[in-house]
């Protein structure tokens, strides 16, 4: 395999190896990737660039980045002193569906929303394992696409749905549940993981970042709405 350092060497700030480092620093400042948690991956051509596992995300350097061939599922570059991201199979699930970037955060607002939805399901006698976060009539919903192969963004009067899957002891064990949620909700660009965080993907880096930011705003707003005894959905 060799070092293949040329794959992560560039002066272009938007080169995936550089871009991942910038994104991780920004996400750390937002509190999304504290304690080495979370991760980011970008697909460029047939190559997938992945942030390593177990590394403080605000300190990642381009030389820390793993590179994988998407079709062969083989590493083209694998820093020997670092561990591949445990998120990799989940990133691949997004890339297999046409994504250009996938972001995983441990946002506190995402975690709290999953707990609120779980409590609602239990109190109403429903199965919390089949739960989904839903909200409508919030302006920021316009930051999310209508769905794959659909034109435009969601509107103010549309209902945003984000599926929730149950957490597992090991990150890679989430893959099957994530893929099932993608199949059940084909228009979603995000999946929440109960008591854990959220996976968000987009056609490219800019869209994935915009969607992750929009969702985090909505999750935080949803938590604050509950503090004020405000509902997420219109009363019929």
Distance between the termini: 61 Å
Which residues form runs of ≥5 with pLDDT under 50? none
- Work out the radius of gyration: 18 Å
**How are the strands of the largest sheet arranged?**
4-3-2-1-5-9-8-7-6
Q: Which class do the helix and strand fractions yield?
A: alpha+beta
SSE topology string: HEEEEHEHEEHEEH
Write up what this structure looks like.
The chain is built from five helices and nine strands. Helix 3 crosses helix 5. A hairpin with a 4-residue loop joins strand 3 (66-69) and strand 4. The chain has a nine-stranded mixed beta sheet with strand order 4-3-2-1-5-9-8-7-6, with helices on both faces. 37% of the residues are buried. The longest helix is centred in the C-terminal third of the chain and has 23 residues, at 205-227. By secondary structure, it is α+β, with helices and mostly antiparallel strands.
In short:
By secondary structure, the protein is an alpha+beta fold.
Secondary-structure map:
Layout: H1 16-29, E1 39-44, E2 47-50, E3 66-69, E4 74-77, H2 88-95, E5 101-105, H3 108-123, E6 132-136, E7 159-165, H4 175-184, E8 190-193, E9 197-202, H5 205-227
Parallel strand pairs: 7-8
Antiparallel strand pairs: 1-2, 1-5, 2-3, 3-4, 5-9, 6-7, 8-9
What features would you highlight for this structure?
alpha+beta, nine-stranded mixed sheet, 19% strand
């Amino acid at each position: 395999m060799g070092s293949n350092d040329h794959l992560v060497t560039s002066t272009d700030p938007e080169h995936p190896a550089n871009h991942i480092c910038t994104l991780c620093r920004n996400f750390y400042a937002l509190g999304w990737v504290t304690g080495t948690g979370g991760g980011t991956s970008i697909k460029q051509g047939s190559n997938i660039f992945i942030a390593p596992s177990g590394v403080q995300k605000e300190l990642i350097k381009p030389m820390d980045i793993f590179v994988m061939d998407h079709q062969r599922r083989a590493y083209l570059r694998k820093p020997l002193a670092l561990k591949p991201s445990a998120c990799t199979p989940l990133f691949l699930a997004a890339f297999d569906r046409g994504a250009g970037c996938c972001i995983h955060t441990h946002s506190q607002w995402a975690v709290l929303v999953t707990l609120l939805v779980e409590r609602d399901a239990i109190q109403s006698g429903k199965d919390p394992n089949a739960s989904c976060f839903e909200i409508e009539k919030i302006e920021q919903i316009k930051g999310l696409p209508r769905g794959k192969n659909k034109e435009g963004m969601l509107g103010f009067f549309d209902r945003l749905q984000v599926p929730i899957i149950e957490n597992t002891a090991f990150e890679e064990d989430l893959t099957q549940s994530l893929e099932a949620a993608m199949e059940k909700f084909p228009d979603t660009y995000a999946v929440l993981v109960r008591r854990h965080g959220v996976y968000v993907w987009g056609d490219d880096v800019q869209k994935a970042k915009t969607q992750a930011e929009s969702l985090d705003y909505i999750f935080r707003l949803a938590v604050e709405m509950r503090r004020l005894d405000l509902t997420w959905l219109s009363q019929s």
